[in-house]
Amino acid sequence: MHELSIAQDLLARVEESVDSPQARVLRVTVEIGSAAGIVAQSLRFAFEVIARGTRAEGAELRIVALPARSRCLGCGILFEFDGLIGKCPACGRLGGDLVSGNEMILRSIEVADV
Amino acid sequence: MPAARTINLDHPLLASNQAAAAHNREHLDARRILTVNIMGAPGAGKTALLEATIARWSRPETIAVIEGDQATRRDSDRIGAAGARALQVETGLGCHLDALQIHRAIHDLDPPAGSIVFVENVGNLVCPALFDLGERVRVVMTAPTEGADKPLKYPPMFRAADIVVLNKCDLLPHVPFDFEQWTEFVHSVNSRARIVLTSALTGEGIDEWISELARRRDELRAESAR
């Protein structure tokens, strides 16, 4: 349910990034690390609901999933994975120290004047 | 219809929460106020551990507690009855506390320099993990009744912890809970987490929990003296 808070923050950033008073937002692109704990479907739903009545109403929310990376605590290799927790492909050990995968970034918006 | 144009951006989301958290941290650290964010599922024993902590603390009046719950003032009433100051934040539809709520609560409570502030987050193993409050210490509480696999099921929460408290440790002989496996699971998602076993009911482990907090308070004091 924290996706609602994130959607509110996202909408605020989108609205302040629109570059002309006539512009409407057609598409919003965000990058979300796979270990960040964000459910894409919930974020999309929350964004759609709160964007109603704003210049981002009806905008498509494109969510690009970034793979996460952990360093294995057993053999020390760096490996990529999708999801909240990974498994070392070399030694099979679960988890590890998360190196990246918590990203939540507004990458671009596509706008058109109406 | 005119052509669409793309505006490239690089805005981290929740940056406003991060900024508020950084502000809180600066304010609290400068006053040597140890702030401890306690997270965990409903019923893990967060309020009970705080009651036991207050009862054992040498000067309970130097403890302030910010209580986050969806509804009611029950927890802040319990903390008040235990002898510490409490401020209830009813989050309504919110599933977590955020740094702005803590900012306002700190101003209302106005904790004195050198004191300790506990934040009892909304009972939830998911959402609070994402919201930095400006705390000095993050604690995740769990209990044997929740099962040994919770660190693997809720990795962001356990990853965020400085201290993982296994409360209700008096139940260990009575419930099917593989303690070795649980410890391995905690360290598989968070190799630096300190594990402390407590029972808020019997008082077991409370001294160790308090000395963990005292150690972090002393670190904070030593840092700000530099």
Any overview of this molecule?
The complex is a heterodimer of chains A (114) and B (226). Chain A has 114 residues and is of the alpha+beta class. Chain A has a single domain, classed as hypothetical protein PF0899 fold. Chain A is built from two helices and six strands, in the order αβαβββββ. In chain A, the strands form two sheets. Chain A has a three-stranded mixed beta sheet with strand order 2-1-6, covered by helices on one side. In chain A, strands 4-3-5 form a three-stranded antiparallel beta sheet, with no helix packed on it. In chain A, 33% of the residues are buried. The model of chain A has no long low-confidence stretch (mean pLDDT 95). By secondary structure, chain B is an alpha/beta fold. Chain B has one domain: 3-Layer(aba) Sandwich (Rossmann fold), CATH 3.40.50.300. In chain B, 38% of the residues lie in helices and 21% in strands. In chain B, strands 4-3-5-2-6-7-8 form a seven-stranded parallel beta sheet, sandwiched between helices. Chains A and B meet through helix 1, strand 1 and strand 6 of A and strand 1, helix 1, helix 6 and helix 7 of B. Strand 6 of chain A pairs antiparallel with strand 1 of chain B.
